[in-house]
User: Which sequence fits this backbone?
């Protein structure tokens, strides 16, 4: 079926469509078979993780280890008639992943070895994007309590493998609850709090009782998450920002971090595509997304500005961002090169070297921040905000 604004075709129950931007695929609605299979797998994973948590915190005996093994070897009640239940177990990883690819395309099961040698799991749904820098994680179904992302400060990226190759995915599933409210016209819902890196996700034990309704309604925010992730966050986030993110997290430099995202977006994204998005049906949802989901007032301001901009103004925005980025980078280089920023640490060691050395233990550095560094941090953060403001002058 071809319409004025979209191209649609049906193949095997799937709908691919072109909405003025890129072609990607999604299921028009989640069928009962897929829902039952995912629900059965999440039930088994949650029971296993709860038993493993008790064993890790309270200790146990041989019978507890036998119980864990039985959960891994117990056949899953798989609803799809093409897969026999006895073939699918948590202990048979290749068969389980094949079944997921067949019944629930786009759903991935990442398995790692925990600190005590037991497997830990992360079950999520992706949207493969061949045109962006990263494919997207749209929805979390389950994450083990012990499962943590590669970067303790940055849960935006998921490090995994595909056919033996290292792969990084851009995770927008953490915004799903607030994005669903925006997509349904309930923009007054506050964004979900950011969980610690080693905590459970929204689909883990604390809210397992709500997972069925989450799965049933999973399609409503997909379009907004895809657009925000593919066209905005894909360019605003970059792994090279790791040191800047660490310093910002340690010293509370929110405006600096937001300014970096703004300039990366202006330099890395296709502004013509963004202008089309910001002046179309996604204009208001995107403004709410960058206000209530991923809070960045300057990107929200850019969305409004692009929606009203003429074509010849796009070049001006990019040229201005190209002038401001070296200014912000030089300012950060001067700020992060100062010495004597922490108590009881060598006076000749630069700030950025200390932060990199303590990257995974920044909590140990916070009590050592000197009054001088706190004052200079506030001034630097204000200067970064002024640089971001000057983009719109």
Assistant:
């Amino acid at each position: 079926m071809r319409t004025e604004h979209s191209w649609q075709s049906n193949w095997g129950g799937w709908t691919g469509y072109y909405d003025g931007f890129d072609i990607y695929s999604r299921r028009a609605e989640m069928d009962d078979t897929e829902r039952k299979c995912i629900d059965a797998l999440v039930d088994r994973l949650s029971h296993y993780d709860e038993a493993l948590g008790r064993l890790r915190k309270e200790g146990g005996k041989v019978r507890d280890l036998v119980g864990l093994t039985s959960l891994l070897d117990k056949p899953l009640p798989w609803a799809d008639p093409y897969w026999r239940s006895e073939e699918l177990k948590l202990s048979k990883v290749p068969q389980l992943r094949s079944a997921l690819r067949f019944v629930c395309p786009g759903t991935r099961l990442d398995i790692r070895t925990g600190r005590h040698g037991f497997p830990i799991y992360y079950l999520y749904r992706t949207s493969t994007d061949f045109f962006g820098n990263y494919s997207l994680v749209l929805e979390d179904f389950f994450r083990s309590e012990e499962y943590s992302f590669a970067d303790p400060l940055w849960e935006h990226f998921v490090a995994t493998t595909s056919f033996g190759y290292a792969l990084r995915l851009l995770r927008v599933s953490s915004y799903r609850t607030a994005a669903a409210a925006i997509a349904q016209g309930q923009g007054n819902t506050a964004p979900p709090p950011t969980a610690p890196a080693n905590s459970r996700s929204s689909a883990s034990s604390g809210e397992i009782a709500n997972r069925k309704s989450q799965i049933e309604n999973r399609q409503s925010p997909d379009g907004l998450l895809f657009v925000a992730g593919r066209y905005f966050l894909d360019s605003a986030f970059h792994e090279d920002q790791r040191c800047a993110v660490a310093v910002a997290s340690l010293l509370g430099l929110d405006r600096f971090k937001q300014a970096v995202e703004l300039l990366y977006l202006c330099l890395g994204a296709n502004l013509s595509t963004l202008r089309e998005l910001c002046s179309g049906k996604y204009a208001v949802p995107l403004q709410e997304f960058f206000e209530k989901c991923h809070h960045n007032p300057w990107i929200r301001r850019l969305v409004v500005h692009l929606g009203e901009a003429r074509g010849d103004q796009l070049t001006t925005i990019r040229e201005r961002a190209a002038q401001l980025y070296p200014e912000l980078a030089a300012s950060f280089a001067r700020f992060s090169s100062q010495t004597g920023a922490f108590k009881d640490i060598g006076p000749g060691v630069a700030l950025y070297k200390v932060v990199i050395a303590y990257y995974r233990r920044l909590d140990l550095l916070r009590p050592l921040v000197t009054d001088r560094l706190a004052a200079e941090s506030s001034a630097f953060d204000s200067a970064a905000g002024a640089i971001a403001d000057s983009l719109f002058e």
In short: The first strand starts at residue 7 and ends at 11.
